[in-house]
Write a structure and sequence with these properties.
This protein is α/β, with parallel strands linked by helices. 43% of the residues lie in helices and 18% in strands. The strands form 2 sheets. It has a 6-stranded mixed β-sheet with strand order 2-1-3-10-4-11, sandwiched between helices. A 5-stranded mixed β-sheet has the order 7-6-8-5-9, with helices on both faces. Keywords: Cell inner membrane, Cell membrane, Lipoprotein, Membrane, Palmitate, Signal, Transport.
C-alpha cells in the first residue's frame, strides 16, 4: 500500500530538483529565425502532459523544426516555475495547466494559449470508511484540493454550488484544506480528510491503494469534458517575432495528439518510460490504464469553456474582478 505513495513522493521531490538546480536539459530560448538555434520545450512528468512525451520520443519537434535546430526539454514540478521559465525565455513553449496560464495573463504576463493538450482527469473520491455514497452526503465533511482556487478546486466547488452545497469559505458547511496530491493517500489512511479532489494519476492511485470510492467522475465534474487539463503555450513576443517556428512547434504537437489517438498502448509505454527516465521511478501499467480512461488528448482548445471557468472562479469569489480571456487564446496555428 505504501509503494505508490512513496513513488509519487519521490516523483515530486525529484522533479522539483530538476526544475530548481538545472539538471534537466538547459534552455535555448533562441527564437530568432524559422530554422537553426535551440528550441526548449517545457512539460511536467504526468499523464496530462503525454503529448510532449510522445513528441519527444517520436522526434516530432526535430522533424518539424528542421535539421539545423537543436531541441531540448525541461521538466517542471508546478505551474509557477514553468511560467517563470516562459517569462524569462528559459523555455520557448510547452505544456502547462490552464490555471497558471490564466492567472499569469490576468496579472499582465505575456502568455498565449496556442493549442490544447488534454482534457479531463479530475476525479472526486471518498475515503473507503467515510460513509459517503453520493455528493448529497458532502455537507459537513472535509475535502482536500491542491490549492485554494486551483483548477480542480474551482471544478468541484462549481459542481457543488449547482447542488446548493458550499464550503465554509463562502458560508457553507464543508471544511476545505489543501495539500499536495502526494499527501492524499496518507490523509485518507489517517482519516484527516473525507473527500479528495484528485488529478490523475492520483485518483487511480487512491483507488488502487486505499479502496477509495469514486463519487464524481472526470466526465461528471463541472467543465470535466471541455476544460483543458493542459494547454500548449508560448509568449506573445515569440509569436510576433517568429510565427513560423511557433507553427512548427504546434504542428509537432498536433502529430503527437494524433499518435496518441491511433496508438494508445504505445503512448502508454512511452509515458511510463519517460516518467521513469525523468524520475528514476516507474508507474504501474494498472495505474496508467485506469488514469487513461479519464483523460482525453486533443490539440483543440475550447475558448468558451475557459471563459466559463473564469466566470465561475469569479462567482465563487476566487477572483476579485471578472476576467476577459478573449485575447489569451491564439488559434491561428491549429486552423
Amino acid at each position: 500500500m505504501k509503494k505508490a505513495f512513496l513513488f509519487f513522493t519521490i516523483l515530486l521531490t525529484f522533479t522539483g530538483l530538476l526544475a530548481g538546480c538545472g539538471t534537466s536539459n538547459s534552455a535555448g530560448g533562441s527564437g530568432e529565425s524559422g530554422e537553426g538555434g535551440t528550441v526548449t520545450i517545457g512539460y511536467f512528468p504526468n499523464i496530462n502532459h503525454v503529448p510532449a512525451m510522445v513528441a519527444k520520443d517520436q522526434g516530432y519537434y526535430e522533424g518539424q523544426l528542421g535539421d539545423g535546430t537543436t531541441v531540448e526539454y525541461k521538466t517542471f514540478p508546478d505551474g509557477a516555475s514553468f511560467m517563470t521559465a516562459l517569462k524569462t525565455g528559459e523555455i520557448d513553449a510547452g505544456l502547462v495547466g490552464p490555471g497558471p496560464a490564466m492567472n499569469n495573463y490576468s496579472t499582465g504576463a505575456d502568455v498565449k494559449i496556442i493549442a490544447g493538450g488534454s482534457t479531463g482527469g479530475t476525479v472526486v473520491l471518498a475515503r473507503a470508511d467515510s460513509g459517503i455514497d453520493s455528493a448529497e452526503d458532502f455537507p459537513g465533511k472535509t475535502f482536500i484540493t491542491p490549492r485554494v482556487g486551483c483548477t480542480h478546486d474551482v471544478q468541484v466547488e462549481t459542481f457543488l454550488k449547482d447542488m446548493g452545497i458550499t464550503s465554509e469559505r463562502i458560508g457553507g458547511t464543508m471544511k476545505h484544506i489543501t495539500g499536495n496530491p502526494a499527501q492524499y493517500q496518507a490523509m485518507f489512511e489517517t482519516g484527516k480528510v473525507d473527500i479528495a479532489v484528485a488529478p490523475e494519476p492520483w485518483a487511480a492511485v487512491l483507488e488502487q491503494e486505499t479502496g477509495a470510492k469514486v463519487i464524481i467522475n472526470a466526465d461528471e465534474i463541472s467543465f470535466g469534458e471541455t476544460l483543458p487539463a493542459s494547454v500548449l503555450v508560448a509568449s506573445g513576443e515569440m509569436i510576433k517575432k517568429n510565427p513560423e517556428r511557433i507553427q512548427n512547434i504546434v504542428d509537432a504537437h498536433k502529430k503527437a495528439a494524433e499518435f496518441i489517438k491511433e496508438n494508445p498502448e504505445e503512448a502508454k509505454e512511452i509515458t511510463i518510460k519517460d516518467v521513469k527516465e525523468v524520475t528514476n521511478q516507474e508507474l504501474s501499467k494498472e495505474v496508467v490504464d485506469n488514469a487513461w480512461e479519464r483523460i482525453g488528448f486533443t490539440y483543440e482548445v475550447d475558448s468558451e469553456a475557459i471563459q466559463a471557468f473564469a466566470d465561475s472562479s469569479y462567482e465563487l469569489k476566487f477572483l476579485k474582478e471578472k476576467p476577459d480571456f478573449s485575447d489569451l487564446i491564439d488559434k491561428q496555428f491549429i486552423q
